[in-house]
Each structure stands twice: as structure tokens, then as C-alpha cells.
Amino acid sequence: MMKKLAVLSLVAVLGACSKAPNAEKPDGAENYALNCAGCHNPGPGHPGTMLLEQLERPVPALIGRKDLELDYLKSVVRQGLIEMPPFRPTELSDDEIAEIYAYIKDAKPPAQTPAIPAKGAP
Length: 122
Ligand code: HEC
Known about the structure:
The chain is an all-alpha fold. The chain is built from six helices and no strands.
């Protein structure tokens, strides 16, 4: 059901784009939602968040993290990192990565929801 909704809304977005050739390109928040959120949003079911929680990062969800450097984020996005796939310049330009970076840094961190249930939890 969710998948169907996602496909439908993608079709709606694409339709909107073809009708408005001068529509603004996606900003940092939109590109984050499209390219990163699936793995990096807070809560269970997000491999990025779960792995970064195991690595004991200050904010396991990427969003709202203040300790990342742009150069580091850029090299992770370009080269990938263990489980994370790399993004080519045709998928995300350097400028778009910088916008995603700015969005991540400026956003408010989410309430801490452990992606991995505490030991002993049912
Ligand atoms: C398919 C899932 C997936 C997608 C999509 C994804 N990531 Fe990741 N990302 C991961 C995983 C998993 C890790 C943890 C690396 C590891 O240890 O495997 C990670 C790690 C990172 C790190 C390192 C953080 C740290 O503390 O060292 C950064 C930065 C990052 N991702 C940024 C991004 C950005 C920006 C995007 C979108 C352009 C993105 N990721 C898209 C899965 C993903």
C-alpha cells in the first residue's frame, strides 16, 4: 500500500515537472528526502541509522548532526562507505551535495528513537 502510494506520488511529481519545464530544481531538503532519508531517517528499518547507532555517532540519524565536515560528507557520498552506495555527479552534483549538507546541519535533530531496541527489551 505504501509502495503504491509512493509510486503514485512519484508519478504526480514527474507529471508536474513535465508540465512546468522551468520549475525549480529540488533543494537540499528535497534531495535529502529523495536520496538519503530512506537509509538515514530516525527509527528502525533504516540501515544507515542503525549502523551509525552501532558506531555510537552523537546523532545516529544524519539529520540535525552538527559534527560532520562538508569534505567528509562529500567523500562518503561520492565513494560510498561499506554499506552505503556511492552517488555519481550525474545523480547529485557537488552543489546539490553541499545543499544537502547545509540542510543536515541546519535541521533540528529528531527526538532520539533508538533504531536498535535496547538489550532485554521484548
Ligand atoms: C542504501 C542506504 C543509504 C543511502 C541511500 C545513503 N546512505 Fe549514507 N550511509 C548508509 C550506511 C549504512 C552508512 C554507515 C556506513 C557503514 O558503516 O556501513 C552510511 C553512512 C553515511 C555517512 C557517514 C556518517 C559518519 O558518521 O561517519 C554520511 C556522511 C552519509 N552516510 C551521508 C549520506 C547522504 C548525504 C546520503 C544521500 C545523498 C546518503 N548517505 C545516502 C546508508 C545509506
